[in-house]
Design a protein that fits this description.
It is a single chain. It contains 13 helices and 15 strands. It is α/β, with parallel strands linked by helices. The mean pLDDT is about 90. It binds adenosine-5'-diphosphate and magnesium ion (MG). Adenosine-5'-diphosphate (ADP) binds next to helix 1 and helix 10.
């Protein structure tokens, strides 16, 4: 039984999406998986339509009237795929445990005494978006941590704090865990994503999972439909990404179970590095460099916004002044796009492009086909 916490104190970086869909993909590959929802917001529980009178609180709480054992609250949600639900009541646990000894080890002790431990190949723990006692319990119970980082909003400071906690647990509780960074919500349409990926690589080197998760709206849709991606659309990019990630974990799991030696491990690491490099190269090769330009001699700020950047005005869409003109180079995959310029808050279409189409706001968008 390999226990993996999915943790990052930042909300919205893909913890729950990864927990649910990686668990589903491991199960799909024939592994027996238990997903423990350790977030009081219970997004994984809700996202898998689990309905239960009992949840992990009833197992961990020292004072609950409805005490339960882990094995009795497990819910089956598919072949090889079981879930331990959460609930809002879990938010009171931190307070309840404040005077308990070994309060950091409550989940670890529970799993050590879990009668079905031998049945499962993987236990995944979906953590809440903070570094409180629940996350510490998850780290303490795990041999590995997957830290999802959103490609476009990566911040090294946040992860630094999480790693400090891991080190602290190592020192104080004499428990060592490996961590791996998982790049999530990678948008290959945005050049910014590549810059971030380079930055993440520079900071974490071989501590990055070789597979990355791309932005894929189907993942969001699956969550809203209260199921996982392999049920919702197994041919989607999201399904493929989580399937590949599951294969990566299984390969590593089986290699270490077989007692792989240090040399093999080093070779594999260098292969993973190569794979990441190749991935970046392939993503770049799929892109076309497009130069947008507009004349606006008196403007103070000009942006190019379109469906390729979610119509957002930010650093990645800000144009550069070039005498009277403003220009912006973007790397875009082949496809059809709508776009407009924003010249000091005025939305205008591209005066040099005759291809236009009406938009829902009564104006016109310029059209681009690459
Ligand atoms: N790869 C992805 N592509 C598109 N949307 C995603 C992706 N990963 C997560 N999301 C969406 O982003 C939001 C936050 O993700 P979630 O997994 O709930 O984050 P966390 O658990 O870290 O708070 C959710 O609405 C989810 O559906
Ligand atoms: Mg979550």
């Amino acid at each position: 039984m390999r226990i993996i916490a999915i943790a990052n104190q930042k909300g919205g970086c893909g913890k729950t999406t990864t927990s649910v869909n990686l668990a589903a993909a491991l199960a799909f590959n024939g592994k027996k998986v238990l997903l423990i929802d350790l977030d009081p917001q219970a997004h994984a529980t809700i996202g898998l339509a689990v309905d239960s009178d009992f949840n992990i609180y009833n197992v961990l709480s020292p004072i609950t009237q409805k005490k339960a054992k882990l094995e009795n609250i497990v819910k089956n949600v598919g072949k090889n795929f079981d879930v331990v639900p959460s609930g809002i009541v879990l938010s009171t646990l931190e307070q309840e445990l404040s005077d308990e000894i070994s309060r950091e080890s409550r989940l670890a002790d529970t799993l050590a005494n879990f009668v079905n431990a031998r049945y499962y190949d993987f236990v995944l723990i979906d953590c809440p978006p903070n570094l409180g006692l629940l996350t510490i319990n998850a780290i303490r119970a795990s041999s590995e941590i997957i830290i999802p980082v959103e490609a476009s909003r990566f911040s090294i400071d946040g992860i630094g704090r999480l790693i400090e906690i891991v080190e602290l647990i190592k020192d104080r509780l004499n428990h060592s865990v490996n961590y791996q960074v998982l790049v999530t919500m990678f948008d290959s349409r945005l050049k910014h994503s590549f810059t971030m990926l380079e930055k993440i690589k520079k900071n974490f080197g071989d501590k990055i999972m070789a597979n990355i998760i791309h932005v894929n709206v189907k993942l969001k849709e699956a969550q809203n439909a209260a199921t996982h991606i392999l049920n919702y659309d197994k041919y989607s990019r999201g399904a493929k990404d989580y399937f590949s990630l599951a294969r990566e974990l299984i390969t590593r799991f089986e290699a270490s179970a077989a007692g792989e030696n240090a040399l093999d491990a080093a070779l594999k690491e260098s292969r993973i590095k190569k794979e990441i490099k190749e991935l970046v190269r392939q993503e770049y090769a799929r892109l076309n460099e497009i130069i947008f330009s507009i004349s606006a001699p008196h403007a103070k700020n000009v942006y190019v916004v379109g469906d390729f950047n979610d119509w957002k005005q930010d650093d990645s869409s800000r144009m550069q002044r070039d005498n009277d003109a403003w220009t912006k180079k973007l790397a875009l995959p082949s496809g059809k796009y709508r776009y407009r310029f924003v010249v000091d808050d005025n939305w205008v279409e591209d005066p040099n492009n005759l291809q236009k189409t009406a938009n829902p706001f009564g104006g016109q968008d310029s059209l681009l086909e690459i």
